[in-house]
Amino acid sequence: MDQLRDLAADLRIEPSALLDIFLTAVLIYLVLRLIQGTRAVRLAIGAAIVYAVYVIALELDLRLLSGILQTGAVVGLVALVVVFQPELRRGLDRLGRVGSWAWLGASDASGYQRRAAIIAAAAAKLQRRRTGALIVVERDTGLGDMAEAGVIMNADLSAELLASLFAPGYPLHDGAVIVSGDEIVAAGVMLPLAERETSLEHYGTRHRAALGVTEQTDALAIVVSEESGAISLAQTGRIVRELDEDELRQRLYGLLAPTDVSSRARRVSWRHNGAAPSGGDTPEPAPSAEGGDER
Fold it and tell me: Could you tell me the pTM of the whole model?
């Protein structure tokens, strides 16, 4: 019994130690959120492997290997700052914004509705102007690698800015814009084209790029045709066309919002409107057999 009391006394944790553990956990969480979806994830894993090798070298008294790793660590610290520069800049920018802590938590239904409405409004503006556009909306799969091939913006999401990025004659007109959450991450991004050979003769470059990026990721791609002004939405390598602003907004919200959030929002809407549920989420886009339009 006395031994148990001594063990409990030895394991007594001071409040400062608990605070230290909590702050360390928060710091690790912030770093992981910061690099999520970017090439920095793979680089961080590589750095962790190198550190593990260094620890093993110390334990086995491998002096030559541990010495080389120690020397390389000095250069490595500088290299990490250079390599992670986009992520560090993005993190400091978020910390410097008023109310920036909202990005740490899950967004409510109004946040998803707002994003869907902004993107749909921008597409409608571009449709009226017959301006070609390709907007890619990030979901769970990170698009950081693709974004780094374009012009990094990290700008607040707005319909006016989205529409202006595709203005004819603007240097970024021909590339795609990547949207993540409430930010326009990058513009002028060149995307991989769809690899399927069948039925692609009916599609222009923008539609093929939309199919390509949605084949490789779970992103959503909105295309505005330069020739017909038609709005299309691509998902999982399939595309639905001839959408108007309201249809696009509803589909985007149904696909972006988590199931529990979108279902709760629909129930509130049905209560307010006095209508019965129609059942199911937004229909999944189906393949289109229509002819192509824009280049």
Answer: 0.57
